[in-house]
């Protein structure tokens, strides 16, 4: 009888029957590693590099541009900050302001999918602000 909720069939495989995996080569790394911070980067100004920019859909089904920004200086170097720009009529002025900071001109919004690569590796100064349970990320200037 197969377990449909467990596609890897973990529940029916006892630990003793699992294949042997040698992890000893990582023992020293494990001993010296600090647990990564799981909390968000605190509010403030940051210098970041655009690591990824991808089109997706919001929970409401609206088109959305998602940015993965990596902090490149200061005590939070290497940490990720995520920005979502939902593309609605009301949000369009803010989205165009972001494109202006990125120095990207689009004759029409439908050209955006072909221009995402131009965003990659750009360095920016951003501001992260939290209000209640929501965080906003603002593009201040290109560096």
Structural features, described:
The protein is α+β, with helices and mostly antiparallel strands. It has 3 helices and 5 strands. A 5-stranded antiparallel sheet has the order 3-2-1-4-5. It is elongated and about 55 Å long. The model has no long low-confidence stretch (mean pLDDT 87).
Question: What key phrases describe this protein's structure?
Answer:
OB fold (Dihydrolipoamide Acetyltransferase, E2P); alpha+beta
Gyration radius (Cα, Å) is 21 Å
SS strand fraction: 25-35%
Biggest beta sheet attributes? 5 strands, antiparallel
- What is the subunit organization of this protein? single chain
Question: Major sheet: order of its strands?
Answer: 3-2-1-4-5
Task: Please tell me what the overall shape is.
Answer: elongated
What is the tally of beta strands? 5
Main CATH class of the domain at 44-142: Mainly Beta
CATH domain fold name of the domain at 44-142: OB fold (Dihydrolipoamide Acetyltransferase, E2P)
Measured as a percent range, the helix fraction is 10-25%
Structural class by secondary-structure content:
alpha+beta
Q: Uncertain regions: pLDDT < 50 for 5+ in a row?
A: none
**What's the helix count?**
3
Instruction: Output mean pLDDT.
Output: 87
Distance between the termini: 59 Å
Task: Give the SSE string.
Answer: HEEEHHEE
**Known CATH architecture of the domain at 44-142:** Beta Barrel
List the helices and strands and how they pair.
Blueprint: H1 27-32, E1 44-57, E2 63-71, E3 80-86, H2 92-101, H3 116-119, E4 123-131, E5 134-142
Antiparallel strand pairs: 1-2, 1-4, 2-3, 4-5
